[in-house]
Please model this.
Amino acid sequence: MMSAGSDYAEHDRQLALTFARAAKNAGVKRIIYLGGLGETGPDLSEHLSSRREVEEALASTGVAVTVLRAAMIIGSGSASFEILRYLVERLPVMVTPKWVSTPCQPIAVRNVIGYLVGVLAVPETAGGVFDIGGPDLFCYRDIMRIMAEELGLRRRLVIPVPVLTPRLSSYWIQLITPLSNTIASPLAEGLKNPVVCRDNRIASLIPQELLAVRAAIQGALSQVAEHHVETSWSMAGPIPGDPDWAGGTVFRDVRQTTLDIPDWAVFRAVCRVGGGNGWYATDILWKIRGWIDQLVGGPGLRRGRRDSEVVGYGEALDFWRVVGFERDRRLALRAEMKLPGEALLEFRIEALNDRQCVLHQSALFRPRGLFGLAYWYSVLPFHAIVFRGMLRGIEREALKIATSPQNMVSQGST
Model:
């Protein structure tokens, strides 16, 4: 994985040297490195030139290095693939640099893994440099067209112009996609170089079925589609090392407060949200959002709730649905209002002792398309009012519950 920052090339070279020395001292017999495909010469981008420097640094201590050079790797989490996916998803019309016409020979992540594992069993690959690519040769515009078809979107209008420099392209990528400018800039510059295999020796040494671009995109998008809100957001935590853009952007508004109130009382207060109980703060804003939702065909606030006190998994609370429930610990709600994306509102309660707890409140949103991005940023200014007020309202209600004589007696007897 490439480092971020303006000095990424030198940083990566130093990391490679350190790794090579450590490998030598540990008696490692072989290093396998996945680098970047591209023609050599003075016109090579800084990004691809850096990959060549890393190759040389890894081989500097005499440990045999097998280098596999790939163009775009088609798989969820691959930076170059995710750039194109986000651009296609979010922009029906794209004004792009000339690099959309650059030849590219993508390869499916499954085939990359096949080569990475396969070279271990083939001694002839030790110390060799091999180009790896799929069976198709396309320009980036063709890959965008195929991706739009597989996403079920209308054909994207791509208008290439000569005035967009790699720097301007990186800023545009940063605006539309989750990638930061420090990563987008070298990648955007690298897109100007043709990335086509110049030899096919690896195919005879490690034969495997190479996926076509369309089949590889189908596989990658199916992986992204499996990240449903209630499973990938609320039940599964982030895996260390995963890139931020893997699986799609998830915007978060996370707040917490420490309360001198028992956890059971706070949980009961949380479970009273919605319906006739309201949302603890700025109810007028919730009502306006409900009216808007009804106007566009959503449920609005008219569903209310089944019981003013009790909730259970699968129940509706206005335009939310309960998708997570652990008594005295957690309540998760998935939005069923009309949205350009998917939203989750989650409350977690962490008991500190019998009289104290921490209330964690998280609002998560995964946008769909450019309208999803616009929606998130349009409601963001209201979050401080709505969600901060909600925390205060839950605290007030929980205190009433905890100090109610009836509740104090019932809790004391258990």
Remarks:
- Residues 1-5, 227-247 have pLDDT under 50 and may be disordered.
- The first strand starts at residue 30 and ends at 36.
